[in-house]
Amino acid sequence: MPVIRSSEGVTHEIHGARFVSYAAPRTGSAQLCAWRGEIPAGTRAPAHTVDREEIFHLLTGELLITLDGRADRVAAGDTVIVNAGATFAVENPTDRTATSWVTTSVGLTAELADGTRLTPPWAN
Q1: pLDDT tens-digit map of 62-111
Q2: What residues pair up with 36 in beta bridges, in sequence order?
Q3: If you average pLDDT over residues 7-12, what whole number do you get?
């Protein structure tokens, strides 16, 4: 039984946010990836279009989520379903760090507005 201890999460930082990866192929997961996101106060991540479905669950704080051009404030306990092909942006307009838990399938890629394709290491 693979058990990934909290101290074994692999940390990546991009666009002002921190991603701590737990479930991924490198830890024994064949189909799913899961990570904790830490979005500091004042952070505005660029919009990106995902090629796989993501489940984004807010653990703490509040965020402004824009999904396919529609902005909505989400609070701790809320879950956002980001369908494959959706354009997704996250902003933390508050004065506290927000934390999230995200799950998706192995192989996720994201495309920024300028056409840059990202293969997040925490999702592969």
Answers
A1: 999 999 999 999 999 999 999 999 999 999 999 999 999 999 999 999 99
A2: 20, 101
A3: 92
User: In Å, how far are 33, 60, 122 from 10, measured between CA atoms?
Assistant: 12, 21, 8
CA angle 69, 103, 120 (to 5 degrees): 75
Q: How many CB atoms lie within 10 A of CB 53?
A: 15
Cα-trace Rg, the chain: 14
Query: If we measure between CA atoms, which residue out of 40, 16, 4, 30 comes closest to residue 124?
Result: 30
How far CA 74 is from CA of 36, 64, 119, in Å, comes to 16, 6, 26
State how far the Cα of 31 lies from the Cα of 71, in Å rounded to an integer. Answer: 30
pLDDT band at 19 (very low <50, low <70, confident <90, very high): very high
Nearest CA to 13 among 44, 38, 42?
Answer: 38
Burial class of 119 by CB neighbour count within 10 A (0 to 12, 13 to 18, 19+): exposed
